[in-house]
């Protein structure tokens, strides 16, 4: 039902009292290695909710690649589209300081080798999917070719993360374009916009997408389409760790759209999934099942 095209990374996390200055060495906590990357995270999040999900991605022929394949298969993601080799698996080197702030260096590795040809070669996956979703941790040319490879009935969902300027052809295919507040500001770039996210959503919509969703953390989300701008409220939860909220939201939205749900209803469900995600630690480890979502208080 759902094809996710995107990145797969190993997240290498070390806790530190404070970060070293140039030339300095500090000691940190034991190393934790977690499967991550927005593509793999969104595929796992969708599968955990019960979506039939495939991932088109590239990992290295190495231990990190095997860790990712194991986590994807463990969640029930179809991995025939996970290509292996050509470069080391992408890595995110993350230090978390005593204040809880992250500093991250990403080595894209094999993600950078997911090519337009790989997208074109995956036609059977495209034809098996009602919705294809992508993010921007893979080459932009590949995203362009994903859009060109879409069968006529297939809906395209883009989570523009990390944000960058998008060609008109990609924008026009987005149904919806999903951004958080930071990503919205970057995509709006030089435009003179105020502080009202509803205005951001309207201006982004005017750039060509069929619909736009702006996620607003604890304030829920906005859905902009030809019908106007609708606000989707957030669930009132006590956040423990907001990592993965955007990935869970996007995955849930794409899945519900693939079942034919209207956009605003799909976004309301996605907001429940995002809320359930922030009540647990970690990224993939924090994604809820459909049963967890149903149990979450409204
Ligand atoms: P990102 O993780 O990309 O920054 P957001 O922080 O906007 O994205 O979170 C995505 C969605 O997850 C929000 O639209 C909201 O529905 C839900 N969410 C995030 N943080 C909270 C929170 N503190 N309380 C309730 N829901 C939240």
UniProtKB/TrEMBL annotation:
Protein name, UniProt field: Ribokinase
Pfam families: PfkB
Principal place of residence: cytoplasm
Amino-acid positions noted as binding K(+) in the UniProt annotation, renumbered to this chain: 241, 243, 277, 280, 282, 286
Amino-acid positions noted as binding ATP in the UniProt annotation, renumbered to this chain: 180, 215-220, 246-247
HAMAP family the record matches: Ribokinase
EC number: 2.7.1.15
Activity regulation note: Activated by a monovalent cation that binds near, but not in, the active site. The most likely occupant of the site in vivo is potassium. Ion binding induces a conformational change that may alter substrate affinity.
Similarity field: Belongs to the carbohydrate kinase pfkB family.
Subunit details: Homodimer.
GO molecular function terms attached to this record: ATP binding; metal ion binding; ribokinase activity
Biological processes annotated in GO: D-ribose catabolic process
Gene this protein is translated from: rbsK
Subcellular location: Cytoplasm
Cofactor binding mode and count: Requires a divalent cation, most likely magnesium in vivo, as an electrophilic catalyst to aid phosphoryl group transfer. It is the chelate of the metal and the nucleotide that is the actual substrate.
């Amino acid at each position: 039902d759902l094809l996710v095209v995107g990145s797969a990374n190993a997240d290498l996390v070390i806790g530190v009292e404070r970060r070293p200055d140039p030339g300095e060495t500090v000691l940190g906590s034991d190393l934790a290695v977690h499967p991550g990357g927005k593509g793999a995270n969104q595929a796992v999040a969708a599968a955990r909710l019960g979506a039939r999900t495939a991932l088109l991605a590239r990992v290295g022929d190495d231990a990190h690649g095997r860790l990712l394949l194991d986590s994807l298969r463990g969640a029930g993601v179809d991995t025939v589209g996970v290509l292996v080799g050509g470069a080391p698996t992408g890595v995110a080197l993350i230090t978390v300081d005593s204040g809880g702030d992250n500093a991250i260096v990403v080595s894209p590795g094999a993600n950078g080798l997911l090519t337009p040809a790989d997208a074109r070669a995956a036609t059977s996956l495209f034809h098996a999917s009602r919705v294809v979703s992508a993010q921007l941790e893979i080459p932009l040319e590949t995203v362009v070719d994903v859009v060109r490879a879409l069968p006529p009935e297939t809906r395209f969902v883009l989570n523009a993360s990390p944000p960058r300027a998008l060609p008109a052809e990609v924008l026009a295919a987005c149904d919806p374009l999903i951004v958080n507040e930071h990503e919205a500001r970057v995509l709006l770039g030089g435009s003179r916009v105020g502080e009202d996210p509803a205005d951001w959503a309207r201006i982004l919509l005017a750039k060509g997408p069929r619909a736009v969703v702006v996620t607003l953390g604890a304030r829920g989300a906005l859905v902009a389409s030809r019908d106007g701008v609708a606000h989707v409220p957030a669930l009132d939860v006590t956040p423990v760790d907001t990592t993965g909220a955007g990935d869970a939201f996007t995955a849930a939205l794409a899945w519900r759209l693939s079942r034919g749900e209207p956009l605003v209803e799909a976004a309301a469900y996605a907001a429940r999934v995002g809320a359930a995600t922030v009540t647990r630690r970690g990224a993939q480890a924090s994604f809820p099942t459909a049963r967890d979502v149903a149990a979450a208080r409204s």
